[in-house]
Amino acid sequence: MSRVKDPWEVQLMRQSGKRLAEVAAVLRESVTPGISTKDIDAIAEHEIRKRGGIPSFLGYTAGGPTPYPATICASPNDAVVHGIPNDTPLKEGDILSLDMGMIYGGYHSDHAFTVGVGNIPEEVQKLLEVTEASLWEGIRAAQPGNRIGDIGNAVERYVDPHGFGIVREYVGHGIGRAMHERPSVPNYGPANQGQLLKEGFCLAIEPMINLGGEETKVLRDGWTVVTKDGSLSAHFEHTITITNRGPEVLTVLDGGVIAPSP
Ligand code: MF3
Ligand code: CO
Predict the structure, then answer these.
(1) Is residue 103 part of a domain?
(2) Which residues are found with C-beta within 5 Å of the ion, ligand 2?
(3) What is the CA angle 238-255-25, rounded to 5?
(4) What residues does 111 pair with on adjacent strands?
(5) Is residue 1 a part of any domain in this protein?
């Protein structure tokens, strides 16, 4: 069961989320042809620490064979999530998913987006747009009184007509004093099932959508998740809290965005 957070805890979640959104804005600007994901990682660590935060992925021990070695996950092209930053320069036409997390005042925020490096083909742009829009559909479904299953159902109903693959092996999660809290938040499944959503819940909603099939595999580094068919993949994630007025998105610059009921 997810734990209802006290108002003062939600306040710290807001501060954490806002700072992470600031970091994300800096990183987004840095994504240009020629930069390496290691360079972006260094910027991320600097920007997080500058704001009094602690990189939450660095040294993380669940989900891989060894402690996670970097501040961000940087997953280019057919990489879905958990790509380890390296020295390879990005090139025009690549896409890059950046996933980042920080702890501020003892509370975690988690955020991800996918961007094109320079110009990208129209069908790839479409994948990015559909994935981001599906995240907002999921957020909109996270109303108090709805259930966890309504979130994934909204994502799935939005993505399905486009024929893209919805990744099933990795899901969103509760978040708070730990990066991963209960419950899991899948990006698919039936509506009106799972835990009842209550005011004070904090969730990370994060659809991962493939241009091709939904299947993934893990590379031999033990971390990097790629699409089985080699197709491109996009990932968007926000940390939200559920209020009596609706879902409030925390990992945005101008905080306090309440998504209206669908
Ligand atoms: N941000 C990922 C998530 O949303 C977790 C990253 S795994 C780590 O669950 F090892 F990099 F921390
Ligand atoms: Co997450």
Answers:
(1) yes
(2) 110, 204
(3) 65
(4) 100
(5) no
Sheet of strand 257-258, all strands in order from the earlier edge strand to the far edge: 181-185, 172-174, 202-205, 238-243, 246-249, 257-258
Q: Please, which residues have CB within 8 angstroms of residue 244's CB and are 6 or more apart in sequence?
A: 144, 199
Only one residue has tokens 């590379």, namely 219
How confident is the model at residue 119, as a pLDDT?
Answer: 97
Paired with 235 in beta bridges are: 208
Q: Report, as ranges of residue numbers, the positions in the chain whose pLDDT lies below 50.
A: none
Atom of ligand 1 nearest to the CA of 72: 11
Alpha carbons within 13 angstroms on the beta-carbon side of residue 105 total 15
Task: Assign residue 78 the CATH number of its domain.
Answer: 3.90.230.10
Whether the Cβ atoms of residue 202 and residue 149 lie closer than 8 Å to each other = no
The set of residues, in sequence order, having a beta carbon less than 8 Å from that of 29 and lying 6+ positions away, is none
Question: Residue 222's domain spans which residues?
Answer: 7-258
Q: Rounded distance, CA 226 to CA 78, Å?
A: 5
99 Cβ closer than 6 Å to some ligand 1 atom: yes
Expressed in angstroms and rounded, the spacing between residue 134 Cα and the centre of ligand 2 is 16
Q: Are 70 and 27 in contact (CB under 8 A)?
A: no
Q: Which helix (H) or strand (E) holds 14?
A: helix 7-30
Amino acid sitting at position 182: R
Q: What is the pLDDT of residue 1?
A: 62
**Distance from the alpha carbon of residue 175 to the mean position of ligand 1, in angstroms:** 12
| Residue whose entry in the numeric block shows the structure tokens 């939200």 | 240
What's the predicted TM-score (pTM) here?
A: 0.97
How is residue 23 written in tokens? 């970091």
Name the domain count of the chain: 1
Sign of CA dihedral 9, 11, 14, 18: negative
- Helix axes 37-50 and 7-30, enclosed angle (nearest 10): 140
